[in-house]
Inverse folding.
């Protein structure tokens, strides 16, 4: 089986595990008031767009987006034979 298939399977498995953890946490969560913070990164082309529920989360998403952007550029250069 080619490496691509393993990576694709790993990606789907990680998404499934993440969704399962969210469901388990929501069912077995503490009763009462809880504070939920969220954030995310959306890539449009090579440009990361970040959002978050507060400044700290937004900053972490920005760092995460820049790291992913650098890795994307590095892997693109490696695949094209430039580096």
């Amino acid at each position: 089986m080619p490496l691509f298939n393993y990576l694709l399977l790993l990606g789907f498995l990680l998404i499934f595990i993440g969704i399962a953890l969210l469901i388990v946490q929501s069912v077995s969560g503490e009763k009462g008031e809880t504070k939920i913070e969220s954030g995310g990164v959306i890539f449009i082309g090579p440009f990361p767009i970040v959002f978050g529920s507060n400044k700290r989360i937004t900053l972490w998403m920005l760092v995460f987006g820049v790291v992913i952007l650098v890795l994307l550029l590095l892997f693109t250069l490696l695949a094209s034979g430039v580096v």
